[in-house]
Amino acid sequence: MNQTIHIVGGGLAGAEAAYAAARLGGQVKLYEMKPKKKSPAHKSDDLAELVCSNSLKGNRISNACGLLKEELRYLGSLCMESAELSKVPAGDALAVDRDKFSRYITQIIQKHPNIEIISEEVTKIPDGICILATGPLTSEPLAKEIASLLGEESLYFFDAAAPVVAKDSIDMSVCYKMARYGKGTADYINCPFTKEQYDAFYEELVHAKLAPLHLEEEQKIKVFEGCMPVEVMAKRGEKTLLFGPMKPVGLPDPVSGKEYHAVVQLRQENTEDTMYNLVGFQTNLTFGEQKRVFSMIPGLQNAEFLRYGVMHRNTYINAPKHLLPTNQLKIRPNLFFAGQMTGVEGYVESMASGFLAGVNAYLYANDKELLTFPKETALGALLHYITDETIENFQPMNMNFGILPKLEERIKSKQERYEKIAGIALDKMKQFIRENQILRGEP
User: Fold this and answer.
1) Residue 156's domain spans which residues?
2) pLDDT tens readout for residues 256-306
3) Please, which residues have CB within 8 angstroms of residue 374's CB and are 6 or more apart in sequence?
4) Which is the most buried residue in 94, 171, 193, 263, by most CB within 10 A?
């Protein structure tokens, strides 16, 4: 069979997908609108352009992104090969020379006999086997085509996400579980404030440093009151938050009956009960300021932030509703999504998503069984998370240890605990590669 695989988008995910399919013998047509047309974020004519930073985050396996990178090395990732060849000194992080990184990937793909690069903008989803990897700045015509296929409510153009913290980093000697007015089950963790604590928190919040926004994003925020940043709400008046996300009414201390001046509620983020979302705290503060200011919330003084809040233009699909862990669209199995369109956040996460889509598109093209990676691996955990149908309010997610299965044993040291989880993940990945010759680059 070996049908042609059409890949739309030549960023990290698209480039990784093209190489993953082509090295197995797949025939690939890679569509990239550069150099004829560029998004506002792109400057180079090369594929796999790094547009925001040259850092691919931590390199140690006790860092969740470091673990994912190590798995990609095992799998023969082109992007990781390029990263090793173009890396620059950056301590424990993996940073690269951006131009060398993209140029190497571009040259490999240009020379590959199984890949044809077509420099044109795609405005309609190609027929046949296709991978859409057009990223968070997908052009308007194609975005409309995707929205028409999935339904308007399943494609998001504006990402307003609140921070997420690790449950085991919440100080439960300060916080308590309770639903407002005692209705239903006590699903929320409540962080109570005295007036003095609230006043100090409020003062830091309204003066905290903001992340820069493009004009389009600023206009979008003004339009959507429902996703107003918590710091903008706070600036409307000292008591505004007390009638909004920090409303204390109906949340007295369940033991003492004491009523508090303000309360921040944390809502469970995943079925494994390892991550909690700061309810109503979508924000445009810089990541450093989020860590500093939100750590002033009682009970979060030592919180580990698994995801910081964001307010930016970001085109992504409602993956839990539409995607399988193979990156296939449920209603059209020969259509795959990859990269940030699927709701993964970050360079390395996009590489991983692209690799999986490329391998599975090749398998589909040759009538072979597709791969679903084990949940114990970083790649498997990431894909299972974004396709978890129990998630009600899906938001894009970086790789973090909170989405991997919890250990049966309790290890107090965070680094030792993460190293143990990483060891299990890498052993599972090695076993999965042994069991699937396709992952050894053997068609």
Assistant:
1) 5-160+313-440
2) 899 999 999 998 877 788 889 898 898 989 999 999 999 999 999 999 999
3) 380, 428, 429, 432
4) 263
